[in-house]
Structures are given as C-alpha cells and as structure tokens.
Design a protein that fits this description.
Strand content: 35-45%
Shape: elongated
Helix content: 25-40%
Distance between the termini: 71 Å
Largest sheet: 4 strands, antiparallel
C-alpha cells in the first residue's frame, strides 16, 4: 500500500501545472472595447493636366525580295537613308534605338493541296525615335516617310520631368481623401481625428487630345494634347466624439 501511495504522489508531481484562463467580467470587457478608437478608411483621387514635352515614335522600314539577302539589303539601304534624314532633322544619337529586326519567308500554297513553298522574303527593321522638340514632330515624320519609312506602329506623348506634376497630384489626392472623410464623419455626428495611416496607389499618364491652330502648317499634322497625371491614396483616420 505504501508503494502505491508513493507512486501516485510521484506521478502527480510530474504532471505540468495547468493555468486556468482568467475570468474577465462583462464590465471589464466593455471597458477594454471602449479603449479601441473608431476609425474610418477612405480613398482620395486627383488628376493634374500638363502639356507633354516629349514624343516617342515607333517607325521603320519593311521591304521584300526574292532572296533573304536581297530583302535585307534593300531594307538596310532604306533605313540608312531614314537615319540620315532623322539626324539632319535634329534627332540625337541617344534618341535613336533599334527596337525590332526581323527577316521572314513568305509562305504560299496554304489554300491548295500542295506543299507550301517560299515565295520571297520580308525584312522589317523598327526604330524607336524620341523627339524632344514637339514643334518639329511633323517635320520629323515627313522626313522619315520621304526617305523610305513605310511602317508606323505608334506615337506616344510624355513628360520629360513628371515628378513635379506627380507630386502635385499626390497633394490633391490627400486633400480629396481628407475632405471625403470629414464629410462622412460629420454627417454621422462625430469629428475627424488623427491620421492613422496613408497608402499610396498607382499613378498613370493618359493623353487627352487638345488641338492647336498652328499644327495645320506642319508637314504631318499632329495634336500633342495633354497628359493626365493621376494619383490615388488610401487614408485611415480616427473618429472622435
């Protein structure tokens, strides 16, 4: 019997101590909840318009030949003439970049039961051209086309220094978020408190057409339009009584 009692005592001492959860009264729970401030989350947006000062062209030369060498030789000659004219128009070397070069066979005979065959080759050489003086853009296009450029894949406008306009849009977006939050909170009979957090969303630039009277005199009429620099911010505020 003494041995059994000793074994039970040893087992009890070896068991880990159990910690019971402290009891929280309903009154204390209400006090704890009351210490957590009410908050509101809003998103503000703003857009600032600006005239672009840089244009980017994607243009090039597409040629065909009975052989691959003939197609490429013809393409190289025409592109060399285009590059010479672009440099003469004031385009700097840093603003000229080859963006795509391809040489492909022209397959024929898909519509018949015969085996498709090659009927000549097509060479394509594309340039990305940045124009920093927009008043010369029409002349640059005209010069490139005159000397053999026969492919135009796109024309985009941008700001060379977008940061000042982007910062302006950010400030306006914060003001919009604060105005929205204050309107909602005061409509609910409370007051807007301190800022808890600010999260910035993405910004983008969207060209908006804006025609000018003097553009009709350019060899190739071009409308530069405006760039819309947009900012978005999400803000969290405390709500006070």
């Amino acid at each position: 019997m003494r041995m059994i009692q000793t074994l039970l005592l040893t087992t009890a001492m070896a068991l880990p101590a159990l910690t019971l959860p402290a009891f929280v009264s309903p009154a204390k729970a209400e006090v704890a909840a009351a210490t957590v401030p009410a908050m509101i989350t809003v998103t503000g947006e703003a857009s600032v318009e600006a005239r672009p000062d840089v244009a980017t062209l994607s243009l090039g030369v597409t040629t065909q030949g009975t052989t691959a060498a003939e197609a490429m030789a013809s393409n190289s000659a025409q592109l060399a003439a285009v590059l010479t004219r672009l440099r003469a128009a004031g385009i700097a070397e840093r603003d000229l970049q080859t963006s795509n070069l391809s040489l492909n066979p022209n397959w024929v005979g898909y519509d018949s039961n015969s085996t498709p065959t090659i009927s000549g080759y097509t060479a394509n050489n594309m340039l990305t051209v940045r124009v920093r003086a927009l008043d010369t853009l029409g002349g640059v296009l005209d010069a490139a086309i005159t000397d053999g450029a026969n492919t135009l894949n796109g024309l985009t406008f941008e700001l060379s220094e977008p940061r000042p306009k982007m910062d302006e849009a950010r400030v306006a977006a914060v003001a919009d978020a604060m105005a929205r939050a204050r309107l909602l909170v005061e409509a609910a009979g409370a007051k807007l408190g301190a800022v808890v957090s600010i999260t910035e969303g993405g910004g983008f630039m969207n060209p908006t057409p804006m025609f000018r009277k003097d553009e009709a005199s350019a060899p190739v009429p071009v409308a530069a339009g405006e760039i819309g620099v947009t900012s978005s911010v999400t803000m969290v505020f405390q709500i006070t009584d």
